[in-house]
Amino acid sequence: MPKMSFENHIMTQFDEELEEIRTQLMEMGGKVEQQLKDSIQAVIKADSNLAEEVIREERLVDEMEVDIDEACILIIARRQPAASDLRFVMMVTKAINDLERIGDEARKIANHAVILSEQDGLSQGYKEVRHLGDSVSGMLANALDAFARFDVEAAMKTLEEDAQVDLDYKSALRELVTYMMEDPRSISRAINVLWVVRSLERIGDHAKNLCEQIVYVVKGKDIRHQ
Amino acid sequence: MPKMSFENHIMTQFDEELEEIRTQLMEMGGKVEQQLKDSIQAVIKADSNLAEEVIREERLVDEMEVDIDEACILIIARRQPAASDLRFVMMVTKAINDLERIGDEARKIANHAVILSEQDGLSQGYKEVRHLGDSVSGMLANALDAFARFDVEAAMKTLEEDAQVDLDYKSALRELVTYMMEDPRSISRAINVLWVVRSLERIGDHAKNLCEQIVYVVKGKDIRHQ
User: Fold this and answer.
1) Angle (nearest 5°) at CA B62 between B56 and B65
2) Per-residue pLDDT tens over the stretch B122-149
3) Is A177 a member of any domain?
4) Average pLDDT, chain B
5) What are the chain B neighbours of A97 within 8 Å (beta carbons)?
C-alpha cells in the first residue's frame, strides 16, 4: 500500500535521525575522552605544547554540544517523539551537557599543566595525578561503552567505580597537604596540582551522571540523588 | 515566556501548565538562593548547626529537580509544544540542572563549614569568603530576577558581573596562598577555605549559565561558548 510504505519511509527516516544523534554523541564522547587523556599526559610530562592543543580544541567540543542540542530540539519539534524515544532525546541533551563539562575540566587541567611546566620544583604530586587520572579515564571509558551499548548492567557497575575514585582523590589530597607542610616553598606549585586533582574528581562525577542517564532511559527510572 | 492570550480552553490549560513549571522553577531558585546564603553564613560564623541544616535540605532541592524534570517531559509528550514554547521547556530542563548544581556546591560549602568550625586557628580567609560570597549571591539573585521577568537586558548585564567574580576569586586565592606560606600550620585549615572559595566561583559560573539560557529562549540564539 502506498500509504503504508510512505509511513514506513518516515519511520525509517526518524530512526535514522535518532541514530545520527547517537553517533554524534559517541563522537563527542570520543573527543572528550582524548582531551582528558591528553590533559593528564600534559601534566605528567610537563608538555605545554600538548596542553595548548587541548586548550585550542575545547572549541570543537563546545561546537559539538551546540550542534547536537539543536538537532535534538529539531527532532522533538518535527517528529514529536513519544515515550522511550522522547526519553532518549531528553537524555542526549543532558549527556552532552556532562560531556561538555568534562571537556571544560580537561581544559582547566591543561591550563594548570601550562603553569606547572613553567614552575620549578619537584614532580611531587604527579604520581597521584597519574593514579587518579587512570581511575577516572577508565571510568569515563566504561561509561561511554555502556552508553554505546545501552547496557544498564555495565552502567551500574561503572557507577560503583566512583567510590574508588573518591578514595583515590582523598588520598591524593592528603599527600599534597603533606608535601606543602614539609616544604612551604612548594605550596604554590602544590595548589596547581590540587586543582588538577579536583578537576579529575569532578570528571568522575560527570561520568557517574552519564551512567545514571543510561539507567534512566532504559528503565524509565530516575536514580539520581539516591 | 508562556503566551497569555489564547482563547481556546485547551490552550489555556497548556498555558497554565507552562506557568506552573515556571513557578516551580522560581521556587527552586529561591530555595537554592537561601541555601547559598546560609552556607556562607555557616562558614563565616562557624555555625555548624546552620551548616547541618543546609546539608539536610539539599534533598529538597534534588526532589524539586526531579519533579520539574518529569513535568517538562510530560508537557512535551502530551502537548507537543512548538517553537518558543518548546525552547522554553527545554531551557527549564537545563536551568534546573544548574540550580541543582548550585545547591550541590552550597552543600559542599556547608560540609567545609562543619570541618572549619571544628578546626582551631585564626579566621583568616573569612574576609575573602564574605567578599566573594556577596558578589556571587548578588549575581545569582540578579540571574533569578532576570529569569522571573524574562529580561534579556538584565541577563546580559548579570553576565558581565562574572568578570568581577573571577577577579575577586583570584584575589582570594592569592591571599590564601600567602596565609599558608606565612604559617604552614594553617595549611590544612586554609585548604578548607580554598574549597569554599572554589565552590563560590563555580556558583558564579552556574549563574552565568542561567543568564545565557534566558538569552537563548528569548532571542532563540545560543550564546554559550562565545
Assistant:
1) 155
2) 667 788 999 999 999 999 999 999 988 8
3) yes
4) 90
5) 94, 97
Measured between beta carbons, which residues in chain A are less than 8 angstroms from residue B181? 184, 187-188
* Contact residues on chain A for B184, CB-CB shorter than 8 A: 180-181, 184
The pLDDT of residue B222: 65
Task: Answer yes or no: is A94 within a domain.
Answer: yes
**Distance (Å, rounded) from C-alpha B93 to C-alpha B72?**
7
- Dump pLDDT digits (tens) for B104-117: 999 999 999 999 99
Find the residue in B nearest to A84 (Cα). Answer: B77
ipTM for this prediction: 0.85
Residues of chain A with pLDDT under 50: 1-5
pTM reported for the whole predicted model? 0.89
The answer to whether position B55 is within a domain reads yes
B11 touches chain A (CB under 8 A): no
Chain B residue with Cα closest to A206: B101
Residue B119 lies in a domain: yes
A94: distance to nearest CA of chain B, Å? 8
| Of B194, B147, B37, B46, the residue nearest B103 (C-alpha) | B37
Which stretch of DSSP H or E encloses residue A192?
helix A187-219
- The total domain count for chain B is 1
Tell me which chain B residue has its CA closest to the CA of residue A62.
B225
B89–chain A nearest CA distance, Å = 11
Cα(A214)–Cα(A84) distance, integer angstroms: 12
Q: List the 189-208 stretch of A: residues with Cβ below 8 A of B.
A: 191, 194, 198
Match 620544583 to its residue by C-alpha cell.
A121
> Which CATH number does the domain housing residue B19 bear?
1.20.58.220
Domain that holds residue A44: 2-219
Helix ranges (DSSP H) in A80-125: 83-118
